[in-house]
Design a protein that fits this description.
The chain has 2 domains: 47 residues, Homeodomain-like (Arc Repressor Mutant, subunit A); 157 residues, Tetracycline Repressor, domain 2, CATH 1.10.357. The chain has 228 residues and is mainly alpha-helical. The chain has 10 helices and no strands. The longest helix has 23 residues. Helix 6 crosses helix 8. Helix content is 71%, strand content 0%.
């Protein structure tokens, strides 16, 4: 007498279900936009019932929070893993510019989600995108301070101004990419931003360069990054 072997199908774990839901939400939001990306479409993409989503997330905004949280976590995990292996504040600052541009260039739709999230004025919660911008600014400011301490950067360099300028250049590049869809030459844009910043804060130029002229050069570079 033969005995049939019954294979029991293992149900996905809670973590696997959440991962599937979040990835499905990312796909739907990126393809349809946040407003049109209905929960029913996300459920269909995930192959589950709508009610299952509400077991883990209280709203569509909650899903967007998680999508962007994971997006930013991937960026910062990479940065934190890589920074210790890079020597010198100049190289570390340049790396952060380069890595951020890679993240921007990899997914135009995610650029739109980040921008939308940052501009949701009706949301009273602190903006995750703003929090992440501050987090990046802290990392960059620390490198500027390290450069001042070791004499690589001018002693009168303002870490906050440098961070504002780098952030502005990155934001402009992202805006241009969203508007035109033109492929970003990551290496070229990184070099353009870094040359503009570094030429104004390098200690070797302390007698001839000023932060005022640095701002002027940054504005000129910004015009080139966002062609009409």
């Amino acid at each position: 007498m033969s005995t049939a072997t019954v294979t029991k199908i293992q149900r996905p774990s809670k973590e696997q279900r959440i991962d599937t839901i979040v990835e499905s939400a990312r796909k739907v939001f990126c393809s349809s936009g946040f407003e049109k990306g209905a929960i029913e479409f996300i459920a269909k993409e995930a192959g589950i019932a709508e009610g299952t989503i509400y077991r883990y997330f209280d709203s569509k905004h909650g899903l967007l929070d998680e999508v962007l949280s994971r997006h930013y976590s991937a960026l910062f995990d990479n940065i934190h893993q890589t920074l210790p292996s890079i020597k010198g504040p100049c190289n570390r600052l340049r790396y952060m510019i380069h890595r951020t541009l890679i993240t921007i260039s990899e997914d135009r739709s995610m650029c739109g989600l980040r921008t939308l999230y940052a501009r949701q004025s009706e949301d009273k919660r602190p903006s995750l995108s703003h929090d992440q911008n501050r987090r990046m600014a802290v990392l960059m400011a620390n490198e500027v301070k390290a450069g001042i301490k070791e004499g690589t950067f001018r002693p009168d360099t303002s870490p906050s101004i440098v961070c504002y300028m780098i952030g502005g250049a990155l934001e402009l590049t992202e805006h241009s990419f969203m508007r035109t869809g033109k492929t970003i030459d990551v290496d070229k844009v990184t070099d353009s931003i870094w040359r503009t910043i570094h030429s104004g804060i390098s200690s070797s130029d302390a007698t001839t360069k000023s932060l005022t002229s640095l701002v002027e050069r940054f504005e000129q570079a910004a015009d080139r990054l966002d062609p009409a």
